[in-house]
Amino acid sequence: MRIAVASEGLAVSPYFGHCASFTCYKIERGIIVECQNMPNPHQSPARIAAVLRELDVTAVITGIIERDAVEALEAADIEVVANEKGSARGAAEAYLAHTLIGADEWHNDEETLNALEA
Predict the structure, then answer these.
(1) Residue 103, pLDDT score
(2) Of 28, 43, 44, 83, whose CB has the highest number of CB atoms within 10 Å?
(3) Which is it for the CA torsion 98, 102, 103, 107, positive or negative?
(4) Rounded to whole angstroms, how far apart are CA atoms 37 and 76?
(5) What does the pLDDT read at residue 104?
(6) pLDDT tens-digit series, residues 46-65
(7) How far, in Å, CA of 3 to CA of 74, rounded?
(8) pLDDT for 61-88, tens place per residue?
């Protein structure tokens, strides 16, 4: 199992589609045992979901995410935890501890662009 965090450096990216990379944490027996960084391929949400699924990712943690990306990830059987902030590793550890809450707010293109410009 792996958890992928949409990242900007060591922090959770504020926006899934524009993240610099995905920090992928390999989990064994509930513990992070490995960390790898995968540059964002900047492809369609369906293609990103397919790549993450091939890497055995079962959950994605991110900031703002568009509905089509959520649908693509969920279709690939990847859980989405959105509207998170802080360090990527801290978010992954909180997810494992079942203390990561997230929010069920998805954004369309216009809302996302306005948030990025603010």
Answers:
(1) 55
(2) 83
(3) negative
(4) 20
(5) 54
(6) 999 999 999 999 999 999 99
(7) 14
(8) 999 999 999 999 999 999 999 988 999 9
CA distances from 21 to 30, 77, 111 (A): 23, 20, 22
> Regarding beta strands 21-28 and 31-39, do their DSSP bridges make them parallel or antiparallel, or are they unpaired?
antiparallel
Residue position matching structure tokens 């590793």? 89
Three-state DSSP string of the chain: CEEEEEEECCEECCEHHHCCEEEEEEEECCEEEEEEEEECCCCCHHHHHHHHHHCCEEEEECCECEHHHHHHHHHCCCEEECCCCCEHHHHHHHHHCCCCCCCCCCECHHHHHHHHHC
Q: Give the model's pLDDT for residue 112.
A: 46
